[in-house]
Amino acid sequence: MIMSSKLKHFAFSTLLVVTLTGCNTPPDHEHSPMMTEVLASSKPEDWRPLDPESTLYVELASGRVVIELAPAFAPRHVANVKALAREHYYDGLAIVRAQDNYVVQWADPNAEKPELARHPQKAARTLPAEFERTIDPKLPFTRLPDGDVYAPEVGFSGGFPVARDRRSGRMWLIHSYGMIGAGRDQAPDSGGGTELYVVIGHAPRHLDRNATLLGRVVQGMELLSALPRGTGQMGFYEKPQEQVPIRSIRVAADVPESERSALEIMRTDTDTFQRLIESRRNRREAWFQKPAGHIEVCNMPVPVRARAAASAAR
């Protein structure tokens, strides 16, 4: 479970193994492009810059973690997290949990001490859950051709891994590596963004539609995934000196342009991304002897690159 530190002694986590359903179409190994070929032939319009108003910078002593927010899927949580950042709520808090093959989580280390706990100023502490949303035909959706055991359809929308159920008319974000969500207590509406977690292990898809996902890490995952693992229950750090201080969290729009991370993301609603999907389904590099002919949504990368380097190559 993804819970606040207040419930860390009352919960446990069990990771489920994701298995793939079969595909009757044999892989066209001979005609599949390689990922390097797809990237090399991509056009400027296949890429998009990060929106500074929907980007967070998490500043650690080891460097910067860049997060792209998903307002189309969790608008109230995204707005609240930005409000918390803008009132400097996160500054000086800490990463309090690093659970192997699961998540890292940051929070107020003094959350259980009322006299010391930090309180939001104008931002909310809790919000109604945003586990899923109505399918919107205006939202682009690139469906993966292979099956999924957790949802009728999976694919990408706006760069984020997404599941859909057209019978219920609902769609939701998926707990893939690098996704970020709001920790909560037992009640579904007990989270709001004061505690956030990032998936650092095998995709815990059993959490889908049980916690509000609100974005994904697009740069700096190694700063989180390589942290020392906590030895307490659920990977919580047992000693204050083990915690990893957060210097600040800022909305990129509030950071001088000269200090921003100039990144661009491959669009997931293009023919180029469709070719990229095929390149990952049927690996044609010399090392591979038997292409899989399938791709699981959490194994499908969405490329990110520096804009300066991209401009120089054009």
Q: Quick gist of this model?
A:
This protein is α+β, with helices and mostly antiparallel strands and 314 residues long. It is built from five helices and 17 strands.
Name the CATH superfamily assignment.
Cyclophilin-like
Structural Rg? 20 Å
Distance between the termini: 46 Å
Mean pLDDT: 90
Textual characterization of the structure:
This protein has 314 residues and is of the alpha+beta class. It is 13% helix and 24% strand. It has five helices and 17 strands. The longest helix has 12 residues, at 75-86. The N and C termini lie far apart (46 Å).
Notable features of this structure?
single chain, 24% strand, alpha+beta, five-stranded antiparallel β-sheet
Tell me the layout of helices and strands.
Layout: H1 35-41, E1 47-49, E2 55-60, E3 63-69, H2 75-86, E4 94-98, E5 103-107, E6 133-134, E7 142-143, E8 153-157, E9 160-165, E10 170-173, E11 179-182, E12 196-199, E13 212-219, H3 221-225, E14 244-245, E15 248-251, E16 263-266, H4 271-281, E17 304-306, H5 307-312
